[in-house]
Design goal:
The complex is a heterodimer of chains A (about 110) and B (about 525). Chain A is α/β, with parallel strands linked by helices. In chain A, about 45% of the residues lie in helices and about 25% in strands. In chain A, a hairpin with a 2-residue loop joins strand 1 (about 5-10) and strand 2. Classes of the chains: A alpha/beta (about 110), B mainly alpha (about 525). The interface between A and B is medium-sized, with 19 and 26 residues.
Chain lengths: ~110, ~525
Amino acid sequence: MIELTHEVRGDALILRPKKRIDSSTAKSFEEQANVLVDAGAKKVVIDFSEVDYISSAGLRVVLTTAKRVKAAGGALTLSGVTSNVKEVFDVSGFASIFGMHDSVEQAISSLNG
Amino acid sequence: MEMFVDIFGGLGLFFVGVKLIGNNLKQLTGSWFRRLIEAATRNTTVSALVGILSGALTQSSNAITFISIGMVTAGLVEVERVVPMVIWANVGTSALVLLSAVDVKLAVLFLLGATGIAYYFDIDKAPRFRHLLGAVLGLGLLFLGLELIKSGAMPLKTMASVREFLSFAASSYVLAFLIGVVLTIVAQSSATVSIIAVTMANVGLLTIDQTIVVVVGASLGSGISIALLSTNLRGIGRQIAWMQVAVKLVGVVVILPIFAVELSLHLPGIKAFVFMLTANHATAVALVYLLLQIVSAVLTTMFRDRIMHAIRRLSPPTVEEALSKPRYIYAEALDEPRAALDLVEREQARLFEFLPDIVDAVRLDGVSKLGPDLLSQSAASVARQCGEFLTNILDNNSARDVLLDVVEMQKRNEILLSLILAVADYVRTIKAAGTIAAESKFGRLLFALGESMHTILSIANDAFQNRDRDDLALLRDFTSDRSTQMERVRRQVMDVEDIGPAEHDTLYASTTLFERTLWLLQRYTTLVETATQQE
């Protein structure tokens, strides 16, 4: 079970997973994120500042969440990626496709822009 | 002494002849034999006829059995389809045994003379005739050898020691039977041993009864020989070999008791039957050989399904064979080219399921329990079968729109095969590198490459299963050109860490293979997207 907190700032939903997103935690992340996104969020930021490990299972959950947001007419971006997981986002192409921002504020403004 | 040299030389010529015929006919039959098998597999009767013909040409049911095993394990035909051919190949091997019973001395000398002249005029240099001429020379040498054995062995029957040995052998049919078994295991051909036995009967060295027992023993010997040769086989390969063993056993189990009753109770049986057809001893033995093969083939064909059921239980398909079996494409679908192309497309899309599992072998988070070599070889095998299937669609159709679509699908197939090999190479490279500190820059890069490759291959799998335009577009984004990125990450590792030559090689190989995998995926995606837009 993943520890996931969230915050609503204006019309943006900020998801904050913690520690590890791998095959053992990805499913619970997906389930919780789906409930929050389905509540009507159009702008979603996933803040990875407290995540120190992400595997392929985690990346795929990020992707399915992004597709869900897009299907609802919204957009998703990433923020606060730590050095531990930055390489995974870079090499996989997630950083360039979804955008990777230093802070949540920058991420929200990119979604507003 | 001269007599033994004659027999020895005759045997030598005989074996050279057998080898020449077999080797040259196998070369000669290479491409057409393959097409023949494919065509034959559609119909049981044709398959049986092809078996008889192949047995007559190669003079070896072992050769047909192992060629069939090769075809089936390569995934070119289904095991059930080659079984009639394997069963009836034995009947074909009777041709030479029957010929050996006839006096063909003049024909043999003429054949050798004509072959010699052909060699003198360098006709053997022409690729079209090389193997045909080699096979004809083999046939000539084989019969010349038999003639030498015949003439050399003629005085033997007057020698006291030989008479004593033969009367001893005649007193024990078990011994004659064992001689047939052992000689066949050594010579690897029941036809060969039977021909020698017929030759011996021809000159009166063996009685008709002894010779028949030797011939039946030879059949059992052939079964044992195949069983021995198939000990290293598993799964479907072993199923075919055991079917051939069953054919041999059925013949022996049926014919031997009938002959035993005929001998002991003097009731009419096999011997009486063949002597109704001929008065010549040698021809009678050759007919027994033919009868043995026909009885075996007919009975095995009658109980084929039951025998196959039992064999399948004894030797189920291996995991690799099960994985290497196409799920969608099948030979009958070739009649409908459009449907056949759809099936290839589904089969190709299915192969993308294998790719993330192959990468699992080098991931901490990996869940696949099957080894990467097994998965990649199976996937590559199915891809090759798709390639063969596409070639068959081309061969069967000339409609322009079908041809264009087949060519497009062939392009995809080539990319898919390269993709499977690239992913397998990547995994092999990472495994060969051994343990690299996870917290080092290089270790983190390898982790990122593995997780990224697994993710992108999973995205590709979803995209090609669904063929959703948005998913395909997303996949195109994920597989954009990475040459600059890979160059940068290589430099970053080398700037920060002092890596040795082996790690240097791993760094280059892994990043290059990652780049190649994405490039191949990009090309495949573009082809699928184009096809989707046209639809």
